[in-house]
Amino acid sequence: MKYGHFDDVHQEYVITTPKTPLPWINYLGCNEFFSLISNTCGGYTFYKDAKLLRLTRYRYNNVPADINGKYLYIKDGDTVWNPGWQPTKTELDSYECRHGIGYSRFTSSKNGVKASVLSFVPLNDNCEISQLTLTNGSSEDKKLSVFSYVEWCLWNADDDMKNFQRNLSTGEVEVQDSTIYHKTEYRERRNHYAIYSVNTKIDGFDTSRDAFLGAYRGADSPEAVENGKCTNSMASGWSPIASHQINVDLAAGETKTFIFVLGYIENPEDEKWESYGVINKTRAKEMLAKYQTDAQVEEAFAALQAYWKQLLARYTVDSADEKVNRMVNTWNQYQCMVTFNMSRSASYYESGIGRGMGFRDSCQDLLGFVHLIPDRARERIIDIASTQFQDGSAYHQYQPLTKKGNSDIGSGFNDDPLWLIAGTSAYVRETGDTSILTQMVPFDNDMSVAAPLMDHLKRSLDYIINHKGPHNLPLIGRADWNDCLNLNCFSAHPGESFQTFGPSEGPVAESVFIAGMFVKYGEEYAQLCELMGDADEAARARKEVQAMYDAILKDGWDGDWFVRAYDAYSHKVGSKECREGQIYIEPQGFCVLAGVGVKEGLAEKALNSVKERLDTKYGVMILQPAYTEYHLELGEVSSYPPGYKENAGIFCHNNPWVSIAETVLGRGDRAFEIYRKTCPAYIEDISEIHRTEPYVYSQMVAGKDAKFYGEAKNSWLTGTAAWTFVNISQYILGVYPTHQGLSVDPCIPKGFGDFSITRKFREGTYHIQVKNPQNVEKGVVSMTVDGKAVDGHIIPYEKGKEEYNVVITMG
């Protein structure tokens, strides 16, 4: 069942009913100011950091769902309605929400009045614009009243929802003309405030939530709206809001527009004012002056669209499969940009107050956006590396505002160090910029102990080398990529008492997954060493990679698939020897994509086992059989009910690893089969089952053991976005950046047909045509570059060259 459709011409998803299975959202903002907005106008807004600088409140776990938002109430006689349906939920005569690239547009009608709201964050200002257009489509004149509504958060979103004894006495506002100033905390910080303004004279306002809503009422039935008149309340403590009242006379056929601006203003710290209660409104007025007319708004909106157009043009495909084109050219890359901005910090599943930016998460996200914004990818790498410790380990998370490591979470996730190599390698291959490797980067954000980034990468590699277990496999630490596989926690096997392992006894649990990572990224580290002229270090790295390769084959192979790990007792995890959790997806995908077991014939066995034991119609499950009881020696992985999350759910994040692994073996049919099972464009028709947005990837889909098999959770902010784009763009379509130039070596399903790709790489634009006259899955028999035959499938990079015309023939 569908709840809308794709509009590929305008790069929009068109939602045709507000009653979607879950809120379907969009992200507004490209730089430092962001809003989440749902298809019913729910969501929240923040500047830089969703925890520390939250502008508006949002209520998770609320009933009804998806409250609060930025609401516009239209009162037409006794009828009150909202263009986005919520919160009054008045039955509308028509409804449409168009989520576009960096904007959302709501168009609804009721009793002859049409309302359209365009919401977006302009490129160069810290504000959100909502342009309301009202049209009287009836034959009679209309007298309407429009009421805006936002509820302020008292900045620190965590403190805002807990510290009532203080916060209920701190709210402060000011109203000047049509601008409402939220200056709570201004006495303390004296350098920032928020505004909500409209570009017309207002007929009333409210800044007190109690006054606007009325006693024991909700946003679905505000007393001020019901009465048709705001109270001009001035909040003092309690819960400040911002609401404008605009009375509108609309003649038959007449249209009027109003521009609402929600913004954040930060003045330099060194500015001084007469008293703690007086705010400098100059910057607010300067910003508001830019968005007073429809022409100004249209200009800002056109600039935003132009920005996204040039950005997404950096990689485009034209194939016979419109769904591949749709995802590659628009939605997958757009989601990669959102994960760049948010990591895992602020969504409808992450409240924005806990995780901040993830070390592992941000490194993986970089793989999907480095081709789009390489300069900002460089900055991100430096930010991430600055949270590393001198021994090569790192803070698992850091706060986006301070860029300091999160000491509450700390370190100990032993896959983290290798992801820094992965992200840096991707950046250097993309840009050719080796200067980043010599940039001085602090450890733990302390410049007194800074070292070149290349030294950080060496310490990442050495951390794994120096932390191996009894089988010469990497120690897992607190966990590896699978955060729930906590093998060094309380341990108990039949006949053994509970115990906690101390430093002298361990922890000794080992990860075959990290071993596969080491093989792949150890080789990429060696290539960086060669670029820097350090042949000895490259040789040392490759010697360690070979040792790890051998250790995997010796103790990481279980006969038909790769073992997942060894627990703190050196018992296998993910083995035929286990009653539950016999096979895990992670080492099958990552070991094979790293090349482990390919020449020995083991890789094919492992992937065949994945298809036989883990595959479903909705994607590849993370493990089987599901854990039906709690295993203390395994940690959190078995705490979930069967079929959910890490306990046999379909983790969309690691499905691309298996798909990439299949391309390593040249099995294009199977690689594409895996790709399409979790790809939103292919599963739009089952939205009533899938439930999350049909235009972006989700982290998890419930596996076959779950009660709600096929239901997705945790959409938008997931490494699925980056890894799936890497899979489809670099391995299936086959355009892979190397240090020598672009490699073009597709691995496609039979019947995919010819296709073309435009790819911007360094200074050049590559126009690539792929012909497949023999309908093969993999294999390049010839390549011409600008009409000249070139051996192999790597297009030689020529510094300064701006255009390449490439023809690849498969066979």
UniProtKB/TrEMBL annotation:
SUPFAM superfamilies found in the cross-reference section: Galactose mutarotase-like (SSF74650), Six-hairpin glycosidases (SSF48208)
Domain spans labelled Glycosyl hydrolase 94 catalytic: 307-734
GO biological process: carbohydrate metabolic process
Any Pfam family the entry gives: GH94_b-supersand
Gene Ontology molecular functions: carbohydrate binding; glycosyltransferase activity
Keyword Transferase: yes
Protein known as: Glycosyl transferase
Organism field: Simiaoa sunii
